[in-house]
Amino acid sequence: MRRILLVVVAFAAWFRVQAGEPSKAILDYIERYRYIAVEEMINHGIPASITLAQGILESGAGQSELARQSNNHFGIKCHTGWTGDRVFYDDDAKGECFRKYDNAEESFHDHSYFLTSRTRYAELFTLDPTDYKGWAKGLKKAGYATNPEYAERLIKIIEDYDLHIYDKLTPDQLLAMEDHKKMETDPEPEPGPYGEVAEAKGYGKGVFYFNRIPTIIVQQGDTPESIAERHPGRLQQLLKYNDITASTRLEPGTKFYLQPKRNKGINKVVTVKEGATMWTISRDEGVKLSRLYKYNRLEPGQEPATGEVIFLRKKRDTAPALQKSKKETPATRVQKEKPSTKVKEEATPDPNKNNIIMEFEGEDSSDAVEDEGTIKVQIPTPKATPENTEMTAPVKQEPQLSPVLHTVAPKETLYGLSRQYGTTVEQLQKWNSISDNAISIGQQLIVGYK
Fold first, then answer.
1. Distances (CA, A) of 252 to 218, 221, 223, 256
2. In whole angstroms, what is the distance from residue 167 CA to residue 45 CA?
């Protein structure tokens, strides 16, 4: 990929380390984006040092016009298939098309998708994740940049700022590092009745900050589509931020987020109320659903019992007690009791029907009628033949779960889909029998079961 050479040259000279003193702009950039770089490494296999070094070099440590005005930190051009917002700059040719993002986090996600979805970079993913030199040279060889010194510049940035230390972090160490994450620098005022703090700038009336996220309160009649029409952001992004689908019915008086939820909550813990689920806790506390599962050692779909404490900022030692199974009904008792096979003639048979009644103690059926502990199931009387003179009770079939399918759209990644559907990248790979992170537009993926 060709780069914005003039921007790179200008900012490379500006940020060059002089007399052994590091650049404050680069240090600030690393402090601000190192967490997401490590997160992308864990989910996609791209060394965090490479992501950070490319972001620093391509965006001038976040100071280039493309980064400041369009949140494009990696100089990625539109290319065929890009359906998002775009801006135009003179680069290798006049008026070239570049991708525009709503926030820097989207740019980092798209950078990962760009590398994992193109075959010319496939060889890079066979390298050791700590081999930043191999990655730098491989990017140049694959044509990411035309500058002949591109690999050497990346390596110099990595070594000057010890970025390679981030390539060795584990997920647990990543969680510990969150305390130092610096995505926002403004202090939060005292919260209002919904936990809101000040009106969110640039979002219009009714948008406030909650847990540093631009947030609105759902009104009667609101739908994801109507909210997307009123506020910045594409519908698919808003669905992902809120872990919902376009058909999800929104509850008036609840929070709806216009940017991604945070990895940590305002409070350390929350107590599970009657009827609450991990999804409603994520919604109410502004914490990513995938994080809540990790912090509380739960699998997607598991729900904590009422009264349990849910951690919002760090991992707990043991998982909370889970919700007890639903109150016993004829449908649940059938798993515990074997039906009897007592058969009797109906006292007053319908002259138009030729039926018998089978009594199953504790049995359940969609056509069953419960009567004093006995469930009567009407079935047609078979004709008497030597083969069916002995009746046996039917065996209840276990319900089969059906896969939930998702068709991959442009810009989507396994990581993004895992957040949208409240699962993990590893689980998506297992369900779909794939060994890497490469997915293609139009591909159908299993994202869950119901």
1. 5, 8, 10, 10
2. 10
The answer on 283 and 167 residing in a single domain is no
**Which amino acid appears at position 393 of this protein?**
A
pLDDT digits (tens, 9 = 90+) for 121-162: 989 988 887 899 999 999 999 989 888 999 999 999 999 999
Please check whether residues 243 and 212 belong to one and the same domain.
yes
Q: Which residue is listed with tokens 């510049």?
A: 153
Q: 11 lies in a domain? A: yes
State how far the alpha carbon of 275 is from the alpha carbons of 271, 305, 306, 323, 333, in Å: 12, 9, 8, 10, 23
And the tokens for 300?
């997607």
Question: 48-59 and 150-160 helices cross at what angle (nearest 10)?
Answer: 110
Is the pTM of the predicted complex or chain greater than 0.90?
no
Number of domains in the chain: 4
Residue 344: domain span: 335-395
Per residue in 347-377, pLDDT tens?
444 444 444 333 333 334 333 334 444 444 4
CATH number of the domain enclosing 123:
1.10.530.10
Long-range contacts of 85-89 (CB under 8 A, 24+ apart): 89/4, 89/65
